[in-house]
Automatic annotation (TrEMBL):
This is Outer membrane lipoprotein carrier protein LolA. InterPro entries: LolA/LolB/LppX, OM_lipoprot_carrier_LolA-like. It holds the Pfam family LolA. The keyword Lipoprotein applies. Residues 1-43 form the signal peptide. Transmembrane segments: none annotated. Gene3D superfamilies: Lipoprotein localisation LolA/LolB/LppX (2.50.20.10).
Amino acid sequence: MNKINPIMKAKIQEINQNSITNMIKKCFQMAIILLLSFTSAQAQDKKAKDLLNEVTSKIKSYDNIVIDFKYSLNNAKENINQDSKGNVTMKGNQYVLNFMGVTKIFDGQKTYTIVPEDEEVTISKVNEKDDNAITPSKMLTFFNSGYKYNMDIVQNVKGRKIQYIKLIPTSGKDQRKEILLGIDSQTKHIYNLIETGKNGTKTTLTVNSFKTNQPLSKNQFTFVASKYPKYYINKLD
């Protein structure tokens, strides 16, 4: 097995410190777009708004959504290229995310972060005042303000017509330059989400599998402590 250059390894570890949190945000950015009705008072591209509303109307009929995805992080300047896979199950205000060896469960009130490598579970309440916190309310309001959007390019991806919508942050403090949202024109499902940062970092979330109304366990979004008898339970609240 090839050894990773120590400097490169350090750079990758530094970026990965926030990868899981960013991944959750991207998953929910998709969910936000899927669930919003986009009633911003700002003048926006009507075609883009109509397409987003079509997607919204369809997604609202689903009881739950299960997504398998690929996550790519690229920064040419730092010579970093990373690919990871994961999956997320969402129902109402709850979710379970599996990514980079870590499982996050949100039961509607608390978040449980399970790290098998460290044999540790961190339990925390959601702070509505925390700008970085992922909450159900923010899922439904994130894109209502702070972005302008318009129709972008159309691409043919393996026979699928993918229509892109470009979202541009209106705040100069936002570290993101733009977000491209790819929508399958036939199914009206999200195909991918491409986020470009002002520092040149590009992250791409590509949906490999999009399933709806799946049979879920009653304990799907419940943390069961007995499953982790040797784990250290770290309660932050």
